[in-house]
Each structure stands twice: as structure tokens, then as C-alpha cells.
Amino acid sequence: xxxxxxxxxxxxxxxxxPAVASSPGVVSPAANLPDAVYRADLIEExxxxxxxxxxxxxxxxxxxxxxxxxxxxxxxxxxxxTNEGTAAVDEAIAFLEAQAPLPALRGNPGLDxxxxxxxxxxxxxxxxxxxxxxxxSPADRMRRRGRWSATGEAIAYGPDRAEDVILQLIVxxxxxxxxxxxxxFNPVYGLVGSACAPHRVWRRxxxxxxxxxx
Length: 214
Description:
Keywords: Signal
Strand content: 15-25%
Strand order of the largest sheet: 2-3-8-10-9-7
Region (Disordered): 107-144
Pfam families: CAP (PF00188)
Signal peptide: 1-21
CATH superfamily of the domain at 33-48 and 103-213: CAP
Number of strands: 10
Helix content: 25-40%
Order of helices and strands: EEEHHEEEHEHHEHHEE
Domain SCP: 61-210
CATH class of the domain at 33-48 and 103-213: Alpha Beta
Largest sheet: 6 strands, mixed
CATH architecture of the domain at 33-48 and 103-213: 3-Layer(aba) Sandwich
């Protein structure tokens, strides 16, 4: 059994915190997907939630059925102990059912590179943070690759499946201001980049960088 830990760090436009979940000892088939395929799945899953939040709420309801008290129990996987149990899931469902649909985010190679820089950095260091080994902030890394009028970053640690990454960020268990969720559904952003890498502590790190072009 493993306990989820929410780490609250400063965000940019909206507060964001790395979400940490899942067991480092259980590897799903998705862990072996090529990074480009995994990234495409991640953005497709994110856009499914943005463009049809009410429809995505049904997926979150199915996720809720996996709870036994405050634990997530999937057959054949290590149970995960959450901070808030189903309360955070119910809140996410209510949010999605009330949320107006948003345009799909468009992928951006520069943002992919910025996300990739940080994912690789964290893969090597085993760190859990938005600050890079060189002291860079998310905005610093994104400015190296383009001109933006708004930027934000969300990071998930643990899940191998793209669906689980987005579910984790939307539910945002243990993050009081639901910073991940607010970033994912921020109408300011029109562009997104993503990258995932193996993580020495949490198995996988996935970085999502969001921006609005200048």
C-alpha cells in the first residue's frame, strides 16, 4: 500500500503543484509505450476533458468506483491511500458537470521541448519540483523556446497510463487550491507541450507546459 502526497508549490497564472501518486513498484503495459505515442495519448486525454467536461465526468465516476474507503484498489495493483478519499473525486465530478466546454489545446514543439527538458532533468535527479537543476522556473524554460503572454505548468508523478495522469491532475487530491485542475481548464491557454520520462523514485514523471502565444 502506498500513500499519495500532495506537494503545494508556487504556480504561474494559476497555482500548480506536482501531483504524486501510484506505486513505484507496479508497471503497466503503458510504461513501455514510445514517448511520442504516450505524449499524443496524454494530449488526446486532456482535450477530451476540456472539450466535453460533462462527458468526462462519467469517466471520473467510474474511477470513483475503485475506492474502498480512502484507498484506490485496482485488481493486480498496489492499493493507493489518498488524502481525501472520495470527497476530492466528488468535487471533481461536480466541477466537470458545471464546467463549460473549452477549445482543444494545440500541441506546440517549443513547449514539448521545454517540458522535455524538465522531465529529463527530474528523471536524472529524482527530484519533485517545478524548479530545474539550473534554477530555472517553468516560465524560464518556456521562454527559451518561444514568446508567450501567459504560461503554466502541471506535473504528475507515478501513473503509466495517460488516462491516469489526467484523472490525477483533475481530482487533485491533497492540493488545497486544486491548482492542477485550474491550469488544465484555464481558458487563457491555447497551446500545450508535454513530455514524460522514467523517474527514479516515482517510476514516471509527466510534465505538461501550457501557454498563450504573444
